[in-house]
Design a protein that fits this description.
Layout (H helix, E strand, L loop, with lengths): L8 E4 L13 E2 L1 H9 L3 E13 L2 E11 L13 H7 L13 E5 L14 E5 H7 L20 H8 L18 H5 L1
Parallel strand pairs: 1-4
Antiparallel strand pairs: 1-2, 3-4, 5-6
């Protein structure tokens, strides 16, 4: 039997799409039960586990949908994680997925700004090799040029990295299954 602390609820928007794919929109069991009592969500699916109080028993929700639609942002926040996700967790110079850092194409020492079109994912060795120079000055080629991604582009990239655990009740609402079965 699944431990209660492992009983996260997949959170869907009112249109039954996950609020986020990466990271996957999950709530701990306590938050999902609280949202049920505050009448903010509908229970879509439940675990075989139940919680008990002196006056009631309740099965733990495994999938909930918001009662009010939350308009997704068109453009994601600029964060280190989102840059890595945009770049598919690969160095934009050599392609390796290890020891990743943030690199300014036009170095800050040369007036470069920290924004979507000037920052790429780089492994520490490539970042060190490039130093305070531009890629051209360092004789290094970019695999792709940075752009500001949309939320949909990040979701698409996020689906390439399915979580380690997917509960059976979540599968109808997620789109990793086709890739996992191949």
């Amino acid at each position: 039997m699944l431990a209660l602390d492992a009983c996260h609820a997949l959170v869907l928007n009112a249109d039954y799409r996950p609020l986020s794919y990466y990271p996957l929109s999950l709530w701990p069991w306590q938050e999902s039960i609280k949202a049920v009592f505050l009448d903010r969500v509908n229970i879509v699916s439940e675990y075989d586990r139940a919680v008990h109080s002196p006056g009631m028993d309740m099965r733990v929700p495994s999938v909930v949908s918001l009662k009010r639609y939350v308009q997704p942002a068109r453009y994601p926040a600029f964060t280190r994680f989102n840059v890595f996700l945009r770049d598919r967790f690969q160095c934009q110079y050599c392609g390796i997925p290890d020891d990743l850092t943030f690199d300014h194409l036009i170095p800050r020492s040369q007036g470069g700004l920290t924004r979507w079109d000037n920052v790429v994912t780089a492994c520490a060795p490539c970042n060190l090799r490039k130093g305070g120079r531009t890629a051209k000055q360092a004789n290094m080629a970019l695999r792709s040029h940075p752009v500001q991604p949309t939320v949909q582009q990040l979701h698409r990239n996020g689906r390439q990295f399915p979580p380690n655990y997917l509960h059976e009740s979540w599968r109808d609402y997620l789109y990793w299954d086709a890739e996992l079965e191949e």
